[in-house]
Amino acid sequence: MIMQYSWLIPLIPVLCFTIVGFLGSKMGKKTHYGGYLVILGTAASFILSLLVTLEYTGFIGAGNYYPDAYEEHIDWFTVGNFTLTFGFYIDILACLMMLFASFISTMIFTYSLGYMGGYEDEYQLKRQRRYFAEVALFLTGMLGLAVSSTLLEMFIFWEIMGLCSYLLIGFWSFNHPEGDDKADNAASAAKKAFLVTRMGDVCLMGGLFILFFAMNGHLEYTYVFNVDNLAAAYSANPGLMTLASLLVFGGVIGKSAQFPLLDWLPDAMAGPTTVSALIHAATMVKAGVYLVARAYPLFLLDPNVMLVVAVIGGVTAFFAATMAMNNMNIKKVLAYSTLSQLGYMFLSLGAGGYLMASAISVEGGGIVIENIAEFTAGALGYSAGCLHMVNHAFFKALLFLCSGSVIHANGTEDMRLMGGLHKKMPKTSITMLIGCLSIAGFPFFAGFFSKDLVLDVVFELFEGNINNTELIFALLWFLGIVTAFMTAFYMFRLWFMTFMGEYRGHHCHGESPASMTVPLMILSIFAFAAGFIVVFGWEHVFTFSQVGAVANGDAISYFLVGGAGKVFEISLDPVLELFKTWKTYVTIVLVLVAIILAYLMYAKKTINPGRFNKNGKSALYRTISNRYYFPELYNQLSWKLGYDVARGVEFFDRQVIDGTVNGLSSAVVGGGDLMSKAQDGNLHTYASVVVGGIVFLFVIVLVLFGQFGGLF
Amino acid sequence: MEFVLPALILVPLIGAIITLFMGGSRQKYACTVALVFTVATLLLSLILMITNVNDLSKFDVNYGWINAAGLKMSIILTVDGLSLLMVFLTAMLEVLVIAFSYKESDRPNYFYALLLAIEVGLMGVYLSADYFLFYIMWEVSLIPMYFLISWYGGPRRHYSAIKFFIYTHVASLVMLIGIFSMVFESAYLAGSGTIDFSFAFVKQWMPGADSVFQILVFAMLFFGFAVKMPAVPFHTWLPDAHVEAPTAGSVLLAGVMLKMGSYGIIRVCIEALPGALGSWQYIVIAIGIISMIYGAYACIAQRDLKKMVAYSSISHMGLVMVAMGAAMGGVASGDANLVKMGIEFAIFQMFAHGLISGMLFLVCGTAGHNFGTREIPLMGGIASKVPVYAAFMMFCFMASLGLPGLIGFWGEFGIICAFYDWTLAKDMIYLLVFCLLSLLLTAGYYLWAMQRTLFGRITTKIDVAHMHDVDRVEAVVLGVLAFAIAIYGFWPDLAISYISGYAGGLI
Amino acid sequence: MIPIEYYLTFAAILFAIGAYGVMAKPNTLIVLMCTELMLNAANINFVAFSAFTGDVYGQVMVIMTISVAAAEVAVGIAILLNAYKVRKSTNADDLTSMRW
Hints:
The complex is a heterotrimer.
Chain A (H helix, E strand, L loop, with lengths): L7 H20 L7 H22 L13 E10 L2 E9 L1 H24 L6 H26 L3 H19 L10 H35 L6 H4 L2 H10 L1 H18 L8 H4 L5 H10 L3 H9 L1 H5 L2 H23 L4 H30 E3 L4 E3 L2 H39 L10 H4 L1 H15 L5 H19 L5 H30 L14 H16 L23 H5 L15 H8 L1 H22 L15 H7 L4 H47 L6 H26 L4
Antiparallel strand pairs in A: 1-2, 3-4
Chain B lengths: L3 H17 L9 H21 L10 E8 L2 E7 L3 H20 L7 H20 L3 H22 L4 H34 L4 E2 L2 H7 L5 H18 L8 H8 L2 H26 L1 H27 L4 H29 L2 H36 L15 H14 L6 H20 L5 H22 L18 H19 L2 H12 L3
Parallel strand pairs in B: 2-3
Antiparallel strand pairs in B: 1-2
Helix pairs in contact in B: 1-2, 1-4, 2-3, 2-4, 3-4, 3-10, 3-13, 3-18, 4-5, 4-10, 5-6, 5-10, 6-7, 6-8, 6-9, 8-10, 8-11, 9-12, 10-12, 10-13, 11-12, 11-16, 12-13, 12-15, 12-16, 13-14, 13-15, 13-17, 13-18, 14-16, 14-17, 15-17
Chain C lengths: L3 H21 L3 H26 L3 H31 L13
């Protein structure tokens, strides 16, 4: 009924972009220069997504599509004899993506009305318009990514998001209200973000090329993620498919800022805070998680790929968390925490995938599940990763918006210039507290459920003794636990430094306007309650039919972890399950200890933070402050491999190639000069040369005739 | 409908002659007159565009020309999937550059006459199906460009113009020798008394020639075309010519004249010399890859915006070279799909690069006119002063660096597809790394250039107060190109559908 | 009948004298006259061959040559006169300004 119109979901924002971008100047102040239109469009997209989701799951409309995917496409163009298609593909993962992306966008755009306000001069008005046009285009990318039906189409939207991320990070890159240094900073951050993600993107592109040919010219999800086709391609050339998965994961690393391409995200905080909330926390960086979840069947072919995913996720979670520990910039702390939480998601997806991949065997005919228990346990990792993705979108958007509210009121991002703001901006303070509790994993808050599910899956592998990797997973589990502790610590450090104690700044406007606080409150409800989705049978929502037709035999049917009809079946078991294991209590205790520690250090100040780091002089502290020297490394690399080589090429071009050409032409000219000396102008010389020449030729002819009897 | 193809050459020719004599008090109308003639040409080319691509042979014409002393040269004009897009591109860019340079005040009648004369040559090259006519038209396009650079160019215009002329002229002489050897050999093989210069005659007999002969002839022809493309190491005329040429000249040079080289390789080398392709594919691909990487690296080091864009042309034409090399491999090994892919996207990339580089040079030229400088280090933060200009610049840079959804991406995508298929067959997948590296470098130099020109602190090295944004005409011209880039980028089939038939019929 | 070798030898001697004059004599007037000698040597050859083969075209050629030579002399002398007006000399060694 509404399914057929799913293509409208990304189309509405692009229309808003066109209208606001090209006609925004005609719209005037009453519409906030297109702001209302964009919010309206986003809300329309959200409602449409909701309707599509409801129809997909059978709540409205005639059919119940779940768990199969609904796909429509048209021919797009041909590459040789291969035809590429363009269409949309709705399954539970796509529904999830477009729901939370459009919902959070609606909230953030509403918030932007207040945050991006300021209509004093013509220039600010233009900026306002540009902002709304660009975020609308971004939303097109995000929603398009969610509903696209082929990998290529997905890649286009993926890159459109990258472009918008570039534009929006560089939003203040000229005419910065705080001066030129900030503008330079924003310009360089935008470039860095685009280039680093581009590094991942070219990997992803390489992966797509390999898949394109391995899959006989198909990139449609229905073909590529069909287990039979995958098994056939894998049997034909396993190395190539593993390479393709790794390259695709390379793209993910770039987009989701995982180790070692994690350095651009903290810099990306140069953009407006709403953009950080939307793009660099809630939606765009999730595209990587989405891609891994989407391409799960591909990644499952080789357990080692899943191991790579898990290790990179775990390492990023840990490293990013350490960097958040001592940062004084409120947005940067949140940025590192985003990295860390994304690491959790990959850890979960990778660990679950490793379990599943170990439980199956790939043969020419198809995929056979050899250990159903392991396989089902692994599927939990998938669900946990996706759940953490949604939860994180809510609480991180909330946290960023709260920090935006604080920044808006204080005019600074430095936490050393805040403090005691709880009294001045109570709404922001309370909502941010909810966000902090949620991300820290305080019991019954959203983050609690997903984080503990993630750690559970990793622990499963630690105990499971599969393929002798238990040591790796033990380490990853340990890193996960430590990261949970650090997360709780740095988030509450942030909250206490900002809202408790004495006010250390210069001036505070007080509470933000309603257009900003109302979205905060709505989001805080979700940040608290989103985790309870597990009692609705979340763990079983994801099925693998979404990635391919349910073809022959029983082996494949085990891919249907939950099976049709199990959507939204209320059961408290998963929650009770969580409280039955000792691991949950370990994390709860760690979180509580961390919160108390933060309280003692930053609110009550009975412990001086300086004693742990020699007052900021210890080597570790400096290393962390310098982000493990990653920016340095990247700078050096890009100068050496980029600019220095370029200078060499330029030198070669000027001196060697052009030198040869110019030398050749000077040789010709010089030779001509030399020869022209023969033209002395004397008639007799000319005459003598002519006669001599004739005689010479005559002699030659005679000799040739005498010798050979002819010229030729 | 036989009038269309001769008219495509004659209309600009008449226009050129008329504009040439519009000196003195009439010179203020020269632009309008030139515009009328180019628009007429564009309309004629639109007749071709709306015709079903399979019916294009109804436009063919064949007039006798020289038929003496055993030589047969005819005026044969024809259009097919390969030339159609090039003709359209030429006609469109001509209209746009003449509109764009409406402010030209220095001897405008000569200026527009030269632009129209270039169009005559270009149309002739793309339409002719007789080697003699092809060669003459090749030279006809060269000479007005020489005068355009040496009369209307920048400070080092004489050096650049001479360099341009000698480079391309030497190349075309070598090409002429190649053409003669082909034609005479064909006549010898055919055993006929007359030496027929038509494409069809050569194509009929040449594939039967000894493969060593084909390889040698390929070398001569390839040299002629590769200089025009231009391929490293025969490229140094291009940055110099671009830097000195007036904006309109640069646009035509990069937009359509470079395509003559790749057009020639497909039309002559690949069509007529199938026996040489197997041995040459590696060299062609190697040159293509080197051009790509070398051009991209050279871009990073440039200070002049226009020079950077010139080097980026070398890099992007390297991609075309790679695609043609892959297609050559396909012809040699009989892989129809690979040939189709390679040729299809070589042509598509030629078209795409025509639009994008046209826009790039217009943008860079505007910088020169409106801000008084094109030096990247002198600019900075100008986005706040000239927002429309900044938007256009960002758009065409993004298109050129291959942002998906714009036309440049599809050229790259298809070409790398073809190239990957080729490496797969030759078991050298690692070569893909070079293509991906060039994509990364391309993004690098464009973004860096944007950061230094548009963003950051506002420059104090040039007079920002007197900087003015693009005017209405410039905005319309740039807007048309931007629209074309976006629309073909969203629906590449609009262009590919013209090419597929030709590309599929090549093997 | 006088054998053709005699004519040819005579023409060759005449030509050699003319060539020597062109190469060695400083006076351009003499040079001009020497060219006439060489031309006439050629004419003698033409006539001789014509007479021996009975082909009348050779004599036609001679008339043609004579008329061309007349025109040439007219032009040559005009140039010499002008050169003399400018340079006050007809010596070939003085007229070298047209070199590189």
